[in-house]
Amino acid sequence: MVNTYGTIQFMAKPSIASTGVVVGPVEKESSFAEEFDEILPLENEKDETFERANTRFIEKACEVTIRKAHEQMENIDVFIGGDLINQLSPTNFAARQLSIPFLGVFSACASSMESVILGSLLLESGNARSVIAGASSHHPAVERQFRYPLEYGSQKPGTAQWTVTAAGYALLQKQAKNAPIITHATIGRVVDGGQTDPLHMGAAMAPAARDTIERHLTNTNSRMADYDVIMTGDLGKIGLSILKEMFQDEDSGVILQDAGAQFYGEKSFYNAGASGAGCSAAVFFSYVYNQLKNGVFNRVLLVATGALLSPLTFQQGETIPCIAHAIECRMEKRG
Amino acid sequence: MEQKQFDKIVDQQTPKTPLFVNMLKAFLVGGIICTIGQLITFFYIRFFPFTERTAANPTVATMVFIAMILTGTGLYKKISQIGGAGSAVPVTGFGNAVISASIEHKPEGYVLGIGGNMFKLAGSVIVFGVVSAFFVALIKTILVKLGVVSW
């Protein structure tokens, strides 16, 4: 079978056997707080750097994932993950501890779905039996790299988003029992909407999300109404309304949702909502995954969105190119 | 989708910055900070042998010290979210920039971390402050020489 236009159809039924989501203290306020596996009381322990804390969150999320599936760490064939810190050092360092063959990926906040797509391909090709895939972000570590020092007083506009502290990982196995199956995936294109404001990522990422969703629907011969939910990663409230406006589909109003927009509910402190690689990973692998398992959702499209900027490119006046990777999950009827 | 059409959507969906309210808040917050500074100046003139001209230095030092405590306790960024430029422009904003960068880079060591990054944000304030001070002094010198104004 030849796959075209970036959409992959999986025949081997790769499935999400278990998930693990570990979040920081701020995320206790999240609307999804009850769905997370663990909420740690501190962003970082005493004498621990933020980057080191990010590593610990990843290790913990992987352990939770594997424990929930009653698996052993040494039985995992490949570990695929990404984060937002330079050179992926938190994930690389976690891989040192986990000692599983490792692939580091980066597509900013879309890394979660890129990992899952690559993991599913490994299962599909028969080159792996168990893959652990996901992504993470750590608020203070990301903030200091991309923006200003944490305690620096800069006024955030209403379009700004709050990078979450969260690590979300999933164990992918072929035909796991009573688990959602990944049926399709669409690899994103790098799309540039000409946006330059790094504090308005929703507007920058919306065109990438639209491109991926549109291609996925076309390539799989589906309509929006066929899905229970099409959830984007971290467009935020404003980004989501831009995306809805771009679609002008009568179903887009209800079906299109955004993890970042819902993450902190209506609290105005977080402005337009949540963002970060951990945002999509945390929500997809907790709330959406549980809804699939409980049979509330039967068919969902998960679209993680990533802004591929760096502090350097922004200062050099470049526009913000973005990418969105999507996976389609289905829960087969039990019985 | 056309770029123009997309730009229009972004424009429509993005909430407008409440310029007037922001300016009012900046005025109030900046005004309060400056009033405190003025009170400290009076304090130094009244209780110490400082004149109106020389009291500026200890005042600035005291204001930066207060900014340091507010930054360390996480209060300064909360004030800044309300005050915007009103809390960034006074010398407390300069103190906040220096101190926040110092706290941030402590894990990278005292020399390369704190020493190397302390003026990461405040460096441009110093550079352009010195440059503009030079030009203002130059203009005034010329005006004095021409007899338009006196020192």
Walkthrough of the structure:
The complex is a heterodimer of chains A (335) and B (151). By secondary structure, chain A is of the alpha/beta class. Chain A folds into two domains: 7-174, 3-Layer(aba) Sandwich (Peroxisomal Thiolase, Chain A, domain 1), CATH 3.40.47; 181-330, Stage V sporulation protein AD (Peroxisomal Thiolase, Chain A, domain 1, 3-Layer(aba) Sandwich). Chain A has helices at 50-68, 89-98, 111-124, 139-146, 201-219, 236-247, 252-255, 259-263, 277-293, 311-315, and strands at 7-9, 14-23, 38-39, 78-82, 102-104, 130-137, 162-163, 166-174, 181-186, 191-192, 229-232, 256-258, 274-275, 299-307, 321-330. In chain A, strands 1, 9, 10, 11, 12, 14 and 15 form a seven-stranded mixed β-sheet that branches. In chain A, strands 3-2-8-6-4-5 form a six-stranded mixed β-sheet, with helices on both faces. Chain A starts with 6 loop residues before the first strand and ends in a 5-residue tail after the last strand. The mean pLDDT of chain A is 94. Chain B has two domains: 3-120, no CATH class; 124-151. In chain B, 76% of the residues lie in helices and 0% in strands. Chain B has eight helices and no strands. Chain B has helices spanning 3-13, 19-47, 56-72, 76-83, 85-88, 91-104, 110-117, 123-146. The A-B interface holds A 49-50, 144, 148-159, 193-195, 200, 203, 206-207, 210, 238, 241-242, 245-246 and B 1, 3, 6-7, 9-10, 12-15, 17, 22, 71-72, 74, 76-77, 79-81, 83-85, 87-88, 93, 96-97, 99-101, 103-105, 107, 120-121.
